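Tokens in:
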């Protein structure tokens, strides 16, 4: 039924507006016969206004649901804070409380000057976000693909590949697993110790967990002097400089404090990318998270089963799973549990 809700009233108003404007113009043309008529002028200004009337400006996107639009979940809106910057840029500053929190993640003996490391990084890379901006007439559909063994035999490949933005992380490979994990990647999240070679058209989203990581990035793009952090790391990377963007430590602390409520020493790549996606997308679908149907935790490309992953004190995976389940229960994300 066509109930008189505010939204429907607006559609009705827009409809009447179109009819009256059209009939007015038709009359006008009929009476004057030979006025100058520039359809392109009207077509370019007209539809935009009609579109705005039909789609109220408070809808941030054109998907069936938009993550950032108001919802009934107090839990969500107490946490979701769009003022926290997801990426570092040339002009970012890192607040003192964030810096001190971040320094404790992977303790370094003598951390170098962070401001200096950042200046060096942004002398090399532009660091411009390539994520599409929010737009009322666009639906930014994102797949966040974790590395769980529950992807095997899932046949999710084509569903994953149908997204606009496809985020993968750490050592994720697609070759030989296309049917289950898809073949496209737009953004790959990495830190020095998890580096793998990426295809040329993939954006590297670099996660710095210590000052040395930023120094490594500079080294790996120039001199190759750094070959060890707490383990061996690649000396050089061949990613194009304009395809590298940097995850913001301020955003890491936000995920840890607000979303993880301080559980775990620091948040896992999986939850960092999931919350990042909530901020960059209008629709988020989550694949390859959690255990497989037998309760085993492993990567889809290897058979090694991690028995202590759940008990890990570094990342609280039970709390993390509860956060993603909650996001799914309030329809902010869709959870594909694989098999
Ligand atoms: C959201 O984040 C900004 C920037 O970090 C902070 O200043 C502000 O207090 C936060 N808002 C809420 C409601 O927590
Ligand atoms: C760190 O580096 C910045 C920029 O190069 C510089 O302005 C600042 O004085 C340095 N701080 C320390 C403690 O050396
Ligand atoms: C990246 O390039 C490969 C071919 O080199 C192509 O198959 C793939 O679809 C491209 N990925 C994206 C996300 O455009």
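Residues out:
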């Amino acid at each position: 039924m066509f109930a008189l809700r505010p939204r429907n009233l607006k559609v009705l108003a827009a409809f009447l507006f179109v009819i009256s404007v059209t009939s007015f113009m038709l009359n006008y043309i009929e009476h004057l016969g030979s006025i100058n008529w520039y359809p392109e002028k009207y077509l370019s200004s007209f539809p935009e206004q009609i579109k705005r009337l039909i789609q109220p400006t408070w809808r941030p996107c054109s998907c069936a649901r938009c993550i950032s639009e108001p919802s009934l979940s107090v839990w969500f809106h107490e946490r979701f804070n769009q003022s926290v910057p997801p990426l570092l840029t040339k002009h970012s500053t890192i607040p003192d409380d964030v810096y001190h929190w971040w320094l404790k993640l992977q303790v370094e003996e003598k951390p170098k000057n962070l401001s200096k490391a950042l200046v060096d990084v942004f002398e090399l890379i532009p660091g411009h976000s390539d994520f599409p901006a929010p737009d009322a007439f666009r639906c930014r559909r994102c797949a966040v693909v974790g590395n769980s063994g529950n992807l095997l035999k899932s046949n999710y490949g084509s569903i994953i590949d149908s997204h606009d933005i496809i985020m993968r992380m750490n050592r994720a490979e697609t070759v030989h697993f296309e049917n289950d994990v898809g073949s496209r990647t737009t953004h790959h999240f990495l830190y020095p110790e998890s580096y793998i070679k990426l295809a040329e058209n993939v954006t590297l989203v670099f996660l710095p967990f210590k000052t040395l990581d930023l120094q490594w990035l500079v080294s790996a793009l120039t001199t190759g002097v750094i070959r060890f952090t707490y383990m061996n790391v690649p000396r050089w990377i061949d990613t194009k400089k304009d395809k590298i963007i940097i995850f913001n430590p301020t955003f890491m602390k936000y995920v840890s404090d607000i979303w993880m409520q301080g559980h775990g020493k620091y948040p896992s790549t999986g939850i960092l990318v999931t919350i990042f996606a909530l901020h960059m997308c209008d629709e988020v679908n989550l694949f390859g998270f959690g255990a497989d149907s037998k309760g085993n935790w492993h990567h889809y490309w290897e058979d090694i089963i991690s028995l202590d992953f759940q008990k890990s004190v570094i990342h609280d995976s039970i709390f993390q799973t509860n956060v993603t389940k909650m996001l799914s229960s309030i329809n902010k994300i869709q959870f594909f549990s694989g098999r």
